[in-house]
Amino acid sequence: MLRSAFSVITKILPVRTAKAHCDGPCGVYDPASARVAAEAVLSMTKKLLAMEPPQNSDPIAWATYNNTFSRYVAIKEEQAKEAKQELLILWTDYFKPEHLSTYPDLHDTFWKAAKLCSACKVNIDQAKAEELMQAVEKIHYMFWNSKGRADNWITAS
Amino acid sequence: MLRSAFSVITKILPVRTAKAHCDGPCGVYDPASARVAAEAVLSMTKKLLAMEPPQNSDPIAWATYNNTFSRYVAIKEEQAKEAKQELLILWTDYFKPEHLSTYPDLHDTFWKAAKLCSACKVNIDQAKAEELMQAVEKIHYMFWNSKGRADNWITAS
Amino acid sequence: MLRSAFSVITKILPVRTAKAHCDGPCGVYDPASARVAAEAVLSMTKKLLAMEPPQNSDPIAWATYNNTFSRYVAIKEEQAKEAKQELLILWTDYFKPEHLSTYPDLHDTFWKAAKLCSACKVNIDQAKAEELMQAVEKIHYMFWNSKGRADNWITAS
Amino acid sequence: MLRSAFSVITKILPVRTAKAHCDGPCGVYDPASARVAAEAVLSMTKKLLAMEPPQNSDPIAWATYNNTFSRYVAIKEEQAKEAKQELLILWTDYFKPEHLSTYPDLHDTFWKAAKLCSACKVNIDQAKAEELMQAVEKIHYMFWNSKGRADNWITAS
Amino acid sequence: MLRSAFSVITKILPVRTAKAHCDGPCGVYDPASARVAAEAVLSMTKKLLAMEPPQNSDPIAWATYNNTFSRYVAIKEEQAKEAKQELLILWTDYFKPEHLSTYPDLHDTFWKAAKLCSACKVNIDQAKAEELMQAVEKIHYMFWNSKGRADNWITAS
Amino acid sequence: MLRSAFSVITKILPVRTAKAHCDGPCGVYDPASARVAAEAVLSMTKKLLAMEPPQNSDPIAWATYNNTFSRYVAIKEEQAKEAKQELLILWTDYFKPEHLSTYPDLHDTFWKAAKLCSACKVNIDQAKAEELMQAVEKIHYMFWNSKGRADNWITAS
User: Fold this and answer.
1) DSSP strand E in chain F: where?
2) Which of B89, C38, C78, F26 has its CA 20 to 30 A from that of D153?
3) Which of D129, D116, D120, D117 lies closest to D82 in space, CA to CA?
4) Complex prediction ipTM
5) Strands (E), chain A
6) Which residues form the domain of A105?
7) Phi/psi at F142 (nearest 5 deg)?
8) Residues of D whose CB is below 8 A from F57
9) Is there a domain that residue E76 lies in?
10) Measured between alpha carbons, how far is residue A133 from residues A40, A41, F108 in Å?
């Protein structure tokens, strides 16, 4: 950059704000990301509930059980965090003040959905995991409706 | 574990929910984490506004300027994300429905603070960065007040 | 765990393998995750190509331009990595040897798709970004076909 | 950038170093970040020590216990890593050679603190977790003292 | 940048592709990174197989055992993911179409190696962990051979 | 676990410490990880110094240059952080107090190496990047010597 007037300009103008013409991180928004994570939470929850500890003292069987149980809890944790993160991106970055008149319960819907993600971490709770799926579905329709689209709610599993 | 009645139990009882006795991830909550990140956002914003491109064509000077500018933008981005994340942890994990009567503007306060984090990413805007500091300060007092404490708002820089 | 025969068992049996009954990380697979990231790559590529540097020496305008350009390149980079990661999860974790007869070009399809992700990072190339979308679409149909489903290819943007 | 002499310059001058005018990543330093993580390590350690396995064979009770135990260990691990990282940032980025005369035991103080973070991961050890809090407190006073400030050591929990 | 003809240029030329002169992320490739992670997977697998649960009901002994078991499973998981990631970087970023004639089984070699990483996560399987080491060794020789070097396969442990 | 005396035990014994029999995170240590990252820092530094901005106003050429410059700075940053992290793992986790007599300058060696990582981030400085390679080499020999091995220092590039 060759700007001969630069040093003059910096002293005259209060150089306090440099505004971009684009708002937001310009990503593409899609509740599908939150949905996939929520499906994984429900899947891991069911697998954990279905696990049967060994009937005997076989050390190999116990090591296997513990290895699997540990991993499932960790994956459930990670997917619940992912779901929460994806939902919050929609709340903070996609939805704007002008949406509040159409969706007056916007904040509460997202707050509850986020708290369901926590509940699924803290417990192995299939009812909560199913509630989370319903919360994401509600948000899915709210989102597409705000864009004038009626995309169906389709799950992968 | 030796549980001889296990196989009987699993068939009789509907094994749908395993509830923990502890709620939440049991971390320690402190708005200091969000404050430190917000201070960094303001610091990087000021440094970016203070940068002067080289007056001449010196390639070394230009490479330096570009290296520094790039890095400052990246650090500002990272700290703004960190601030947003830390604030949202307080909103989703710390505050509970019973807090809504004492802090009726809870959701809106956090929503605005999160949107200020975005604004600081998208622009190099000292006014917004200072507004973010004020938003975090408001949340600081809301948080400690809810715990019956009056910790002072003290910044590191 | 009370296992009185434990110490005996460990010395008699070669304790070399503890096998789990479940295969894979048991996540839920959906090409939607790769699609969303690829859409973001294309979106950022278009925005970058549309950016106009300031016509003058205005330092604020230049700081804004550089801040935005930097951020867009970083988001394009991050989304291209995300797309590659999501595609590779499908290749390594979902597809199995038995799929090779139905999809003999499986490896090459994924290799090319991954290399398109790299090309989109290295260049600001709308043609490559559109090729990446087509690669993900091909994988979308391959994936759902392997599950006996015919889910439509629907994009968010 | 319009630099007509560029190609000449690059061939004449050995273009080996492009120096920035600013040193360090320019973040804001505050031992509060390490403190919060250390508090979480102590908190998780106490919760783990307080956990009581079920008295019976109830599979739900056992799944709950294992889910919670797993999660607490993972959070303790993550917070211990966070504490170590934050402490090391202060050691490598904030403290400079000129500080060694005032704080001759600087290196050893940080080395021991980092090793306490490891000890808290490897064991469920309340004594070590409390020692870690004391190590962070010592560093807190060393840090603020080096800045000519006397900020109090205040914990969130 | 002072470019007076800018606005004219953008309207005349189809501004669709901005090509860089460098291909790839320009990192340095070395199978050592995958080797170190695979060594850790084998190490953790052996430690897990060597663990002996307490012979009695001592709660402290049980908490210790569970803390250690959990951590080892988590480290095994993390290292297996790391090994997979490092291997896939070589496959997608280093190897090119021109390598296929010399290494016709390239894709299958990497696919199998990635699936071995998964197997080591899902099971505590020393045979699979040793197979993974052999897979990484095969790739080590394929890689260095493609560069006209004959670096020895040397392990850290 | 069936432990009928559990409730009695917890009240009699001060249940404060659950000690593991294994020390450290049990990973495999190898300075190769730090070496690969340091090689990448040097590589990116050289590429950045070799970049030539376009001679003209061509917007495509400028977008390409900026995209590449940005990416190289980001990769240099990431690799410098990686190098620092890998070095610090050796300092905090591998080296023990008993090593201080053999390597009295241990702390200072690592402190300087970490500060070189920072210098390579802050500047585009080939001399510092080469110094970093030498620091890692010194640590390589210190490490293998402490294990009674004499592994050669071999670089990938």
Assistant:
1) 17-18, 124-125
2) B89
3) D117
4) 0.85
5) 17-18, 124-125
6) 30-146
7) -60, -45
8) 2
9) yes
10) 10, 9, 54
Does residue B68 contact residue B51 with C-beta atoms inside 8 Å? yes
Chain E segment 55-114 residues within 8 A of F by beta carbon are 57-64, 67-68, 71-72, 75, 79
Tokens read off for E64 = 């210790």
pLDDT digits (tens, 9 = 90+) for F61-110: 889 999 999 999 999 999 999 999 999 999 999 999 999 999 999 999 99
Neighbours of chain B (3+ CB pairs under 8 A): A, C, D, F
Cα B99 to Cα B102: distance, rounded to the nearest angstrom: 6
Burial of F68-102, coded b for 16+ CB within 10 Å and e otherwise, reads bbbbbbbbbbbbbbbbbbbbbbbbbbbbeeeeeee
Which amino acid belongs to residue A143? F
Task: Give CA–CA dist C107/E114, Å, rounded.
Answer: 13
Burial class (CB in 10 A: 0-12, 13-18, 19+), F48: buried
The amino acid occupying position A98 is E
pLDDT band at C145 (very low <50, low <70, confident <90, very high): very high
Q: Do the Cβ atoms of D27 and B79 come closer than 8 Å? A: yes
Q: Is residue C120 part of a domain?
A: yes
Number of domains in chain E: 1
Give the closest of F1, F64, F74 to C2, CB-based.
F1
Summarize pLDDT for D68-91 with one digit per residue, the tens: 999 999 999 999 999 999 999 999
**Domain harbouring E90, CATH code:** 1.20.120.400
Backbone angles phi, psi at C86, to 5 degrees: -65, -40
Give E17 to chain C, closest Cα distance, Å: 5
CB F128 within 8 A of CB F120: yes
Secondary structure of residue B18 in the 3-state scheme: strand
Residue D157 lies in a domain: no
CA distance C114 to A99: 38
The answer to whether residue D107 is domain-embedded is yes
| Residue D71 identity (one-letter amino acid) | R
pLDDT above 60 for C147: yes
A149's torsion region: left (phi>0), alpha (psi -120 to 50) or beta?
A: beta
